[in-house]
Amino acid sequence: MAVEPYRRRMLLVTGGAGFVGSHVVDQLAAQGEAVRVLDLRPPRAGAPDGVEHHVGDVRDAATVRRALEGVDAVCHQAAMVGLGVDLGDIAGYVAHNDLGTAVLLRELAAARFAGRVVLASSMVIYGEGRYRCAEHGVVAPAPRPVAALQRAEFEPGCPSCSGVLAPEPVPEAAPADPRNVYAATKLHQEHLAAAFSRETGVPVTALRYHNIYGPRLPRDTPYAGVAALFASAVAGGRAPQVYEDGGQLRDFVHVRDVARANVLALTAPDAVPGAFNVCSGRPRTILELAQALHATLAPDGPPAQVTGAFRLGDVRHVFADARRAADTLGFAAAEDFGTGIAELGRELVAA
């Protein structure tokens, strides 16, 4: 009886030349996996040997069909990211995030794909985080009024009594409440993937990234996250501009930890469907991040400037409950914040 030769699994990473995607590719390749990348950009300098790279657009069906040939699992990182500039960006976000995901899922269904899908989602789908009122328990505050923000009243109040709220970690079961265009498209990606999974039986894991920092962080773009914007300012000899009073709580997670969560979801013996917070489990203020970058990159340069400015699409506090990822996916962040910030600083200084 003839024995078929062993074939390594082929894993497709869309957006595999980008910030998170490139780290996913590195870790998969280091584990000996066969990796294919689909990205609008050419291969990055220093990409691992043996990685197959397709330059193309995930919105193009023919390109996606070619990239899916022989694929056993898909890691969908390709997206337009960040809060954006204004509503002039709305069509771009919908095209890259919603339409791109729809084309990918349609082609997977047409190919009778029988593997698993890991989707890069985001904590922005939660909108405001989880809050507790001493009198009314867990409540969902309304968007902060412009007049209150103009008075520098940044903390949301209880919708029932206007009392002070205490922020808490957000679990995955929290209701979605996207408050900007990017957030709306990330939630729609999850909804499209869930519909695809119900129709096809293909398991989908949605990883809700919190605020990511680390090597290859995008710089000098209005679509970058807060860590990138602060790092660019400090590296350029400018004071980081901290909005509101700097007391906004976020969870800053290292990109290698985020990549490891993806690898776990892609390579676990059994698929782990559902949504998972990918975070450090340790909230920090926006001002703490700015100060850490200043102390590491340019301690003699201008310190962070708290401006009191605000953006209507921003939320006050959102940080994650990390327990489900630990219990079900086997993921816990391992990278040290101070060490990671120092590493980022060295990279920026050398750039």
Give a brief outline of the structure.
By secondary structure, the protein is of the alpha/beta class.
Structure description:
The chain has 351 residues and is an alpha/beta fold. The chain is 35% helix and 18% strand. The strands form four sheets. A seven-stranded parallel sheet has the order 3-2-1-4-5-9-13, sandwiched between helices. A three-stranded antiparallel sheet has the order 7-6-8, with no helix packed on it. A three-stranded mixed sheet has the order 10-12-14. A hairpin with a 3-residue loop joins strand 6 and strand 7 (137-139).
Secondary structure tally: strands:
15
Biggest sheet strand line-up: 3-2-1-4-5-9-13
Series of secondary-structure elements, N-terminal to C-terminal = EHEEHEHEEEHEHEEHEEHEEHEHH
Helical run tally: 10
Q: Give the strand content.
A: 15-25%
Structural class assignment: alpha/beta
Helices and strands in order:
Elements: E1 10-14, H1 19-30, E2 34-39, E3 52-55, H2 61-68, E4 73-76, H3 90-110, E5 116-122, E6 130-133, E7 137-139, H4 146-150, E8 165-168, H5 181-200, E9 204-209, E10 211-213, H6 226-235, E11 241-242, E12 249-254, H7 255-267, E13 274-278, E14 283-285, H8 286-297, E15 305-306, H9 323-329, H10 337-350
Parallel strand pairs: 1-2, 1-4, 2-3, 4-5, 5-9, 9-13, 10-12, 11-15
Antiparallel strand pairs: 6-7, 6-8, 12-14
